[in-house]
Amino acid sequence: xxxxxxxxxxxxxxxxxxxxxxxxxxxxxxxxxxxxxxxxxxxxxxxxxxxxxxxxxxxxxxxxxxxxxxxxxxxxxxxxxxxxxxxxxxxxxxxxxxxxxxxxxxxxxxxxxxxxxxxxxxxxxxxxxxxxxxxxxxxxxxxxxxxxxxxxxxxxxxxxxxxxxxxxxxxxxxxxxxxxxxxxxxxxxxxxxxxxxxxxxxxxxxxxxxxxxxxxxxxxxxxxxxxxxxxxxxxxxxxxxxxxxxxxxxxxxxxxxxxxxxxxxxxxxxxxxxxxxxxxxxxxxxxxxxxxxxxxxxxxxxxxxxxxxxxxxxxxxxxxxxxxxxxxxxxxxxxxxxxxxxxxxxxxxxxxxxxxxxxxxxxxxxxxxxxxxxxxxxxxxxxxxxxxxxxxxxxxxxxxxxxxxxxx
Length: 408
Ligand code: C6P
Known about the structure:
With 408 residues, this protein is an alpha/beta fold. The chain has helices spanning 4-7, 38-51, 61-81, 95-110, 129-138, 155-161, 184-193, 213-216, 241-246, 281-297, 299-318, 345-354, 367-373, 389-407; strands at 26-27, 89-92, 116-119, 141-144, 166-172, 197-201, 220-224, 235-239, 257-260, 265-267, 323-325, 335-340, 357-358, 360-362, 378-382.
């Protein structure tokens, strides 16, 4: 059943009151970026209007306030994912930067020719290209866990690839196209038994379900603030502290050093050694406000709600003629890729927009997955806490309208 109380949350998001082409905005593009509640917007305004200064540098009042807010944000995020200490949270620009940091800072240092990096064909380019490049730089090989016919990773398929040459297993927790939920804890156990470390792309899971990094079995976890009601330009790399300590910095400059002379430099402690330059302070403060907002609503509730919407939408679209839906029927996250027969996904998205419905169309930065599906692109609807059953009705109506329009 839909959580009726959650639908009231729409009023927390000012943009959702904005009509589009004379229609109520039905925002079904949260996998690309979520809308922001007023409390997050207010937190950024408050930071810039009351506390703005650089962090970790000056000793004046504003600098101390800004530093406290920034470090409190780190603690808030650490609690949210169950990190064992706040220093395990590295602020980055987003999932992409976090994954590149692991590939450069950890993989480049430890991989040797012949070592294996295991990924899957469903990865977002951000969790594929950094590993392709790390493999090139180090002489390691990239291996793929093949998907089952509906786009899932089975443990048998994982077992067929993970072995004694595996050093890194890098997988998305939830696919941004198929809505597949991957069995990370079981795969992590397998990877650890083989002596490998596990890098989890949590871009589509951390916003949607309670996450505890210890239970997940990850060694590194990457996610983005903007996909969880937070600002753009702020994201997180969580890493097990000893692994972060062993990793090299990849961005050199201010505030990431311990001592510098003309020829050499030594590094600051974790996490500062990874945060060279002035960080996105207001972004971190906004992200902390987003985390508090999500916690107030309740991550279990959000998970039930978006899963329910994704699965309902899957069933409704699956039952429609002339519509293909992709990914497993159950379990299915709140992301749903589909195509309307004989209509290009960009045209689908255009008709939807004329009706006030925002979806994404394209390859979703997952071209190897499009090749696996045998399509060039898809349309995609994605749900979050502010969506309702009514929005699924609008989605179905918009598909009917699209079919009618192109039949003419
Ligand atoms: N996916 C989508 O519409 P950034 O852009 O760094 O915040 O996140 C990258 C990323 C990494 N992994 C997964 C699984 C993702 O879904 C994304 C972002 C958006 O699907 C934009 S391409």
